[in-house]
Design a protein that fits this description.
This protein is α/β, with parallel strands linked by helices. The protein has 12 helices and 15 strands. It has a 7-stranded mixed sheet with strand order 3-2-1-4-9-6-14, sandwiched between helices. A two-stranded antiparallel sheet has the order 5-15. Strands 7-8 form a two-stranded antiparallel ribbon. Helix 1 crosses helix 10. It is globular, with a radius of gyration of 20 Å. The two termini are about 30 Å apart.
Length: about 350
């Protein structure tokens, strides 16, 4: 009997969540058995109630925490809620555009071909990368992200495989002189690992068998790839992990006082808001998706928040210098994929 779960942490952009759920329903809801969601945000009650109704509509089980928590902590909460035998970790800025691909990834694990399906990444101190390469012979060559670790997104395994780790899924620091136990390596300098790095090292140390697939992370070069039919547009891709969209309602999407939309009902004092330095194509990449979520939102739901979202988007266009025609072109490229 099939027993598959999807675990989704989200910091509660309501329009992003609506888009994610519609993508889930269109491409792979019928390929899994349960969706678990961790809503974690200080966003206002009306928005949370709207999101909870959305989740009920899609048959999801969920937990709500009234402030944003670390991604790894949300994974731990969801994993310990999960009753299914097999699990898929995903993020709310990760979207599928081919049916059957999620089913195939689960089957690789269910059939015993591999223990885990995931996508490589580094996201840790160079010392750790080098020692992992030496100890385990991990190959860092080729297109896209590489490293000894895995994204906590589009990652598939038995639920027990993750439960049998130390369950420290969040970011971790190793001090100078401290032993990185999975590597049995003493750090020469203090080093850090992002979310799921510690877990990835533990899984590798167990000698498990992995199938590594491309994450197809979003890129400022998307339009170049689209025109050349490369990367996401190569005809082989089936999903994309956009990345960095958590910087939206909890960060750069702000009200007229400079306060992020997630905190606008709990913060009183106005703040000076400045957009962090980044290449204009990187801002175009993110704005494209926030604009898509807004365009896909229901004008009759959480109307006051929706209007604040629109005004926040206008501010980002103005501050970043991104042209709306660029965003439309990027949206067109992704619509070709079915997104």
């Amino acid at each position: 009997m099939r027993s598959r779960a999807v675990l989704l942490p989200t910091p509660c952009d309501p329009f992003l969540l609506k888009y994610w759920l519609e993508n889930y329903a269109k491409y792979y809801k019928d390929e899994v058995d349960k969706l678990y969601v961790c809503l974690n945000s200080s966003i206002e009650k009306e928005v949370i109630e709207y999101e909870q109704k959305l989740l009920e509509r899609y048959g999801a089980s969920f937990v709500y925490i009234d402030h944003q928590i670390e991604h790894g902590d949300a994974i731990k909460i969801l994993l310990e809620m999960c009753k299914e035998e097999y699990v898929m970790l995903v993020e709310d800025d990760a979207y599928v555009f081919k049916k059957g691909h999620i089913d195939s990834c689960f089957k690789h694990v269910e059939d015993g071909e591999v223990d885990c399906v995931g996508s490589k990444r580094g996201s840790c101190a160079f010392e750790i990368l080098e020692e992992a390469k030496r100890k385990w012979g991990v190959d860092y060559e080729g297109l896209g992200d590489h490293g000894c670790n895995f994204w906590p997104c589009f990652f598939f395994c038995k639920t027990q495989t993750l439960l049998d780790t130390d369950r420290h899924f969040k970011a971790k620091a190793w001090e100078k002189g401290e032993v990185v136990e999975p590597l049995n390596y003493v750090m020469k300098e203090t080093g850090y690992g992002d979310t799921f790095v510690n877990t990835s090292l533990i899984l590798r140390s167990k000698g498990l068998k992995f199938l590594c697939l491309q994450q197809y992370h979003g890129s400022p070069e998307d339009l170049v790839h689209w025109e050349k039919r490369q990367y996401l547009w190569n005809g082989l891709s089936a999903w994309t992990h956009v990345g960095s969209l958590s910087s939206g309602v909890g960060g750069v999407l702000v009200d007229d006082r400079g306060i992020s939309l997630s905190n606008r009902k709990i913060c009183v004092e106005p703040r000076e808001f400045k957009l962090a330095e980044a290449h204009i194509d990187e801002w175009a990449r993110r704005i494209q998706w926030w604009q898509t979520f807004y365009d896909n939102s229901d004008p009759n739901e959480i109307c006051e928040f929706r209007e604040e979202y629109r005004k926040a988007l206008d501010r980002i266009y103005a501050l970043s210098g991104v042209h709306r025609k660029t965003v439309l072109k990027r949206q067109k490229a992704y619509k070709e994929l079915g997104l």
